[in-house]
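Training component of the fellowship. As part of building independent skills, the fellow (R.M.) carried out the full modelling exercise for a liganded target. The chosen ligand was cytidine-5'-triphosphate. The inputs are recorded below so that the supervisory panel can assess the work.
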Amino acid sequence: MNILENKKILLIICGGIAAYKSLEIIRLLKKKGAFVKCIITKNGKKFITPLSVTSLSQEKVYLDLFDYESEAEMDHISLSRWSDLILIAPATANTIAKLSYGKSDDLASTVILASNKKVFLAPAMNVRMWEHKANQENLEKLKNYGYKIIGPEIGDMACGEYGEGKMTEPNIIVNEIEKYIKKIFTNKKFKAIVTAGPTHEYIDPVRYITNKSSGKQGYEIARSLTLNGFETTLISGPTNLEVEEGINLIKVSSAEEMFNQTINNLPADVAVFSAAVSDWKIKNINQKKIKKNTDINLSLEKNVDILKHISNHNSLRPKLVIGFAAETNDIDLNSKTKLHEKNCDWIIANDVSDKSIGFESDFNEVKIFYKNKKDEIIPKMSKALLADKIVEKIISKLN
Ligand code: CTP
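Fellow's submitted model of the complex:
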């Protein structure tokens, strides 16, 4: 059985001469047993006809955002939910620009913006357009959002020029998709646990001790693991974040609850401890609100170190245990000490004193310390892209 059998691919065809090659993409995908639904943009329609697309895909073709007939049958949200992945081929400079700004003025851009699926882009344009700084910056943004770019290639162009900008050949595009689906299929056997966010250690019913963690990096790692096929449980302290479809979300408040839920959800193949767990809790939580005229002296006791406990557990330790280190100084020394003392396989360290990365930012820069190999720096990038990079490393380690 081919890996693409019964997989659902949403193909978006934009307006460029390479649109004729999209017909070959449909043919190859169908030959491998995939279901292919297509959206053709307004300009795409100038290069190929809906009739040829519908004949090859054997599905209705979607054209306009406000098409009452298709909205009744399948609205733009369901269309993006229906797919296992989205492929934009050819992806024009215009569509790339729109996506990088989150513009959604037609069906194609609306579906992509509303999607939580992996998006592949096969750009095709004139070499000058491809090389233009604006286009390159837009692409960089899309890569940071986690979009995967296939090509383009160098060669003769329809406009008579020569250079980079030719759409990658359909068989290579289909190969890339096959490789991605295969990877997800192989990863289905893996189970992952991710802890994320801060914890709340209550003093009385209305007050608690917490920290500045937003939970973003952990949520992105859980998203990327799920998208890559892992059965993922996210044990999260209080955050304002939305969770991706398909993740088993367990909400907790205190470190103790996080610890209990982590134990309950083991065994797993990999555990990523990204939560900023409070090191202390209140010894005796006041059951009533403490009045301000009371003299208080908070008595604290240590919380269990979840990472250290699991890492040293005889039977429950996952094959791969990854900790984080939030540091303001002596990053290398502190991280290596944590790697050793907590007996984990990797420590991902970040400098939380730098406001442009870390806790509240959407960006991060980390240094990974490994038990058995030399450390490496992953330069500043979006937390989404960084999560993808970390997950790629997890996958190659587990396989
Ligand atoms: N961690 C944990 N349970 C705790 C404390 C920390 O699981 N009670 C985990 C974190 O999720 C992270 C790693 O340990 O993966 C390091 O956390 P960090 O806050 O950087 O360090 P601490 O161990 O708390 O030490 P310190 O505060 O002294 O830096």
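The panel noted the following from the submitted structure. Residues 280 and 302 are 4 Å apart (CA to CA). The mean pLDDT is 93.
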